[in-house]
Write the structure tokens for this entry.
Amino acid sequence: MGFKPKTEEYTSASGNKYVFQTVMPSKWAEILDQITDKHGKILNAKAMPAMLEHVVVQPSGLSLNDFEEWAELQEVTQAAFLFQQQGKR
């Protein structure tokens, strides 16, 4: 029984398409350690880029500044986080 990544297509409220892919549990543990403070609160400045780098696989290479609106960035990165946590949205 080994890790097999799951993928899912996601369409944002504004109609943009993305593909999410789960990361290995060991990598996810590292990411969670990096994106939370000492009280377990998620830090947007670290979490959003991590979701774009590790979970959003298409389009690849996205950065925070590739988004014209905060709402789109927030929606996509939150959906990617939930997908990784649950294996689905």
